[in-house]
């Protein structure tokens, strides 16, 4: 049985908040995994009705799985990248896919069973994964970003089960993250790729016949890593935010006509932003952004104003330098965020409590959110 440790809760780090926002306390709960995970995935991959937290431990070549407060491990042949969950073997049960970062394959665990696995060949140094039905045939397809071969592999779900008929197309240099969403609202999921060494995002349009065309290449900052898409300004179109690791900022693009992005804006974030998720943390009706800051040892909250603008209003310290972040509702009611603390230890759960009123003189207590040493 795992012991969950409450680290603390913190206050707003600015003397006042833009737009009359309310203040949010965040309780941080440590989920020990005996590792320093780089990525985390949230899914019910064993079909028991309970969500699992799956941590990619690149240091020890393992997956560490937290399920019902119990910790289990799956040993791998080399360093894991991201995980994805879907019915990859065609038995109507969720399976677990993991990219093997030091090779050229993705490993599929049948129903999450570590004793029943198969592998599929992809490009060199696969890291990023996305699982979705791309061609509308009712079967789960797998999107893979291959860091060293600078390309994307799409593996199509087969009628008899399994993944096959790979489609590979070039992108920018070092595709470290993929985002699979319907950008142009045509009912088909498109593919966005952050190219770490190119300083760009490649936007591939789904043609609907198992083909993708490059619709747009977006110039962002240096070393883009995480990316997320949501309607930030309430106009019904998907907008895009990208974390630029080397610049300490985000690039935000608004959605335009035909699924193209326009009106780029640079938003300060903090030291070495890696991954980000949209979430109305302060419950004011506008989406905010939660951004992991590897070199600040915590998560920055960038409060949104509903017009596509964001300003950093809070820093929540986790147990070490977080890289990945995902949203989760472990009890099916309350929303939380979970971080993978690669330069610290284990996972951290962030649970918000929104205050009804806030003083303009509120300041951050420097003792809040201190992780155990």
Write the layout of secondary structure elements.
Layout: E1 5-9, E2 24-31, E3 39-43, E4 52-57, E5 62-67, E6 70-75, E7 80-86, E8 95-100, E9 105-109, E10 117-121, E11 126-132, E12 141-146, E13 151-157, E14 163-170, E15 175-181, E16 190-195, E17 200-206, E18 212-219, E19 224-230, E20 239-244, E21 249-255, E22 261-268, E23 273-279, E24 288-293, E25 298-304, E26 310-317, E27 320-328, E28 336-344, E29 347-354
Antiparallel strand pairs: 1-2, 2-29, 3-4, 4-5, 5-6, 7-8, 8-9, 9-10, 11-12, 12-13, 13-14, 15-16, 16-17, 17-18, 19-20, 20-21, 21-22, 23-24, 24-25, 25-26, 27-28, 28-29
What's this model, at a glance?
0% of the residues lie in helices and 53% in strands.
Explain what this protein looks like in three dimensions:
The chain has strands spanning 5-9, 24-31, 39-43, 52-57, 62-67, 70-75, 80-86, 95-100, 105-109, 117-121, 126-132, 141-146, 151-157, 163-170, 175-181, 190-195, 200-206, 212-219, 224-230, 239-244, 249-255, 261-268, 273-279, 288-293, 298-304, 310-317, 320-328, 336-344, 347-354. It is mainly β and 373 residues long. The chain has a domain at 55-170. The strands form 7 sheets. Strands 1-2-29-28-27 form a 5-stranded antiparallel sheet, with no helix packed on it. A 4-stranded antiparallel sheet has the order 3-4-5-6, with no helix packed on it.
| C-alpha end-to-end distance | 22 Å
What's the number of helices? 0
Total strands: the figure is 29
Helical residues, percent: under 10%
Largest sheet strand order: 1-2-29-28-27
- 3D shape: globular
Radius of gyration: 20 Å
Q: Which series of helices and strands comes N to C?
A: EEEEEEEEEEEEEEEEEEEEEEEEEEEEE
Biggest pleated-sheet summary: 5 strands, antiparallel
What does the oligomeric state look like here? single chain
Class derived from helix and strand content: mainly beta
> What low-confidence regions span 5 or more consecutive residues with pLDDT below 50?
1-22, 356-373
């Amino acid at each position: 049985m795992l012991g969950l440790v409450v680290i603390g809760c913190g206050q707003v780090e600015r003397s006042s908040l833009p737009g009359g926002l309310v203040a949010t306390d965040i309780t941080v709960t440590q989920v020990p995994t005996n590792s320093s995970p780089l990525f985390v995935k949230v899914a019910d991959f064993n079909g028991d009705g309970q969500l699992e937290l799956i941590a990619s431990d690149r240091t020890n070549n393992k997956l560490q799985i937290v399920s019902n407060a119990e910790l289990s491990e799956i040993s791998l042949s080399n360093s894991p990248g991201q995980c994805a969950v879907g019915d990859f073997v065609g038995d109507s049960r969720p399976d677990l896919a993991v990219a093997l970062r030091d090779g050229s394959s993705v490993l599929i665990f049948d129903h999450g069973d570590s004793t029943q696995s198969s592998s599929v060949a992809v490009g060199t140094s696969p890291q990023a994964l996305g699982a979705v039905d791309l061609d509308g045939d009712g079967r789960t397809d797998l999107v893979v970003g291959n860091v060293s071969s600078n390309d994307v592999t799409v593996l199509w779900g087969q009628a008899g089960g399994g993944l096959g008929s790979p489609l590979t197309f070039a992108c920018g240099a070092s595709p470290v993250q993929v985002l699979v969403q319907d950008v142009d609202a045509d009912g088909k999921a498109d593919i966005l790729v952050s190219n770490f060494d190119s300083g760009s995002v490649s936007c591939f349009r789904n043609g609907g016949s198992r083909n993708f065309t490059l619709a747009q290449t977006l110039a962002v900052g240096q070393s883009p890593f995480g990316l997320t898409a949501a309607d930030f300004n309430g106009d019904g179109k998907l907008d895009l935010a990208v974390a630029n690791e080397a610049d300490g900022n985000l690039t935000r693009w608004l959605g335009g006509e035909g699924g193209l992005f326009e009106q780029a804006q640079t938003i300060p974030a903090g030291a070495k932003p890696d991954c980000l998720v949209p979430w109305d943390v302060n419950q004011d009706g506008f989406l905010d952004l939660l951004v992991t800051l590897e070199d600040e040892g915590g998560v920055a909250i960038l409060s949104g104003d509903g017009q596509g603008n964001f300003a950093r209003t809070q820093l929540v310290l986790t147990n070490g330098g977080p890289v990945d972040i995902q949203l989760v509702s472990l009890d099916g009611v309350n929303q939380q965020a979970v971080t993978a603390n690669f330069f610290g230890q284990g996972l951290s759960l962030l649970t918000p409590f929104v205050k009804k009123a806030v003083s303009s003189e509120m300041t951050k207590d420097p003792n809040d959110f201190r992780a155990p040493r």
